[in-house]
Amino acid sequence: MRVGCPKEIKNHEYRVGLTPESARELVAQGNEVWIETQAGAGIDATDDQYVEAGAKIVDTPDEIFAECEMIVKVKEPQAIERAKLRVDQILYTYLHLAPDPEQTVDLMNSGVTAIAYETVTGPRGQLPLLKPMSQVAGRMSVQAGASALEKAHGGRGVLLGGVPGVMPGKVAVIGGGVVGFNAAQMAVGLGADVTILDRDPEVLEKVGTFFEARASTRFSNRANLYDAVTQADLVIGAVLIPGAAAPKLVTREMLGDMQNGAVLVDVAIDQGGCFETSKPTTHAEPTYVIDDIVHYCVANMPGAVARTSTYALNNVTLPHALRIARMGWKEALRADEHLAAGLNVHKGKVTYKAVADELGYEYRSLEDVLG
Asked: Residue ranges of the Alanine dehydrogenase/pyridine nucleotide transhydrogenase N-terminal domain (predicted)?
């Protein structure tokens, strides 16, 4: 199979879909790999390194989209890229379609077969292709929030760890999954006063056992959520419903009862965000203020630590890419129910139920698609 990897063009996105090492593995299995020139510059991977791995360097993304059977990316294709997709082509990347009707329409119109990293499952119901980026984003959320809390950045002027004689900052983490767990680890490590909220008693037990007295846990009902959010200096939104839009847990009304200069970091922004006042931002302009509350809603947080993120991502995406290239997408999906869960769009039809339900499309089952 001819596999293509274009350079990412989303604002301040430095990751790349294939590392030189991943390209070498694909080539070793008899595939052609086409890499757009300078695609790996953000992780210090040179064109020469890709050539040494057996890949072909091409000058423009047009060549890749026109000639390659499978496109491997990191972020969702931008409008200019979606216009180049075609029928019988495989797109393998993060998509996050539920809050993005425009992208969904464009993918349907293109006829492409789109497999989304974020809905590929694991044997215990986990999301292994999302996990490494969730780990990165969870850890970065506290880093970003701590910076936004500085007075010069519009925040309250609070140091999360405090100093002797001064109380530490309060951090509320909404969601105890992968993002929330990693955010809590970072916040606890800084010495902050951390509260983790979740609706799953087993998750609360797990994080409570891990953190012991270093962090508090609370069941996430309306009263506890309001109490934690209005007292916090930093609120991390770490809620995920696989493939679906995130629920709006922090309302505009709550902002009026929060402390002026408090910070909201919405890690769920890829899925529409879990704060009512969230809107996607970029690394170029990461924050905005509503009702004296600083919002950090960067939709590609891991892109800022591109090298770490790219290698962590390739570790989990490459095995499926190899399988698709070797077997073709239909046989690969038939052979692996977990990879099959990643199919979101095929020949103009939505094939992931949560996306179909959210955007009002008819759902087409995998069994129907595979015949």
From this structure: 4-137
Query: Given CA atoms 309, 113, 9, 105 in this order, what sign does their dihedral have?
Result: negative
Whether residue 44 lies in the annotated active site: no
CATH of domain 132-299: 3.40.50.720
In this prediction, residues 264-293 reach a mean pLDDT of 96
Cα 322 versus chain centre, distance: 22
* Average pLDDT taken over every residue of the chain: 97
- The answer to whether the beta carbons of residues 246 and 239 sit under 8 Å apart is yes
pLDDT of residue 245: 87
Measured CA to CA, the distance from residue 299 to residue 290 in angstroms comes to 18
3-state secondary structure of 250: strand
Give yes or no for a contact between 213 and 243, defined as CB atoms under 8 angstroms apart: no
Catalytic site includes residue 338 = no
User: How would you classify residue 189: left for phi > 0, otherwise alpha for psi between -120 and 50, otherwise beta?
Assistant: alpha
Q: 371 pLDDT band (50/70/90 cuts)?
A: confident
Cα–Cα dist 71/64, whole Å: 8
pLDDT of residue 260: 97
CATH 3.40.50.720 residue spans of the chain: 2-119+306-370, 132-299
Answer for the pair 45, 318: CB distance below 8 angstroms, yes or no. no
Nearest to 146 by CA among 212, 81, 233, 223: 233
In the structure encoding, which two tokens stand for residue 220, read together?
Answer: 């996430």
- Spot the catalytic one: 266, 270, 295, 338: 270
pLDDT at 241 over 90: no
Mean pLDDT of 258-267: 98
Distance CA(366)–CA(371), nearest Å, equals 8
- Would you give the DSSP letter of residue 299? T
List the Cα angle 338/342/343 in 5-degree steps: 120
Mean pLDDT computed over 313-318: 98
| Residue 269, pLDDT above cutoff 80 | yes
Two structure tokens written together for 101 = 């009707």
User: How far is Cα 105 from Cα 356, in angstroms, rounded to an integer?
Assistant: 12
Query: Looking at domain 2-119+306-370, does it have CATH number 3.40.50.720?
Result: yes
